Amino acid sequence: MKRNIAVIDYGLGNIRSVINMLENIGANAIVALREEDIINADKYILPGVGAFNAGVRNIEAYGFREVLEEQVLKKGKMILGICLGMQLMGISSEEGSLKGFSWLAKRVVRFREKESVMNGLKIPHMGWNVVNEIKTHRIFSNIKHPMRFYFVHSYHMECEGADCEYGLTNYGYNFVSVVIQDNIIGVQFHPEKSHIFGMQMIKNFWELK
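RE: above sequence
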């Protein structure tokens, strides 16, 4: 049976951009609009643009929370969270009052303005920046160094310990930009907007087994 990858559409993401990139690498991509789409998929991409509370509410309103946990946590299917999609996998966020999925034992915090402003940087962090690989993983395979990706965010996962942290980016200080825990991968940047760097990363994720 031909494998497929589902892009979760919960109303807050660059769905078309992600689908276009998946089609460009030859992946069999679908937009997941129903629980059945998620159940029948082999892998997932959870994109996201917008506020944390809205993301939590939408995921639950669409009925996707429980089915994703069944497929990802119990059946071990791979998922890639992008930007807000990554943040939703954490415990909580300073941006909102609702609880995250708690798949990753991380909290999401706002950029420390004092450190960023002192370095002449503005919030949100917007534009191209370098991701430094601090642990080896196939998600980084064949990506030209320095690895440059496109960011748009004011919040990031807190950087404590190195249990699941695989990539760091500096914006006034180092923050975690790639997290990996078993079959769960999260990136704070937007690979779908990152040209050849992002295309290779998406290709790597599609080919992971």
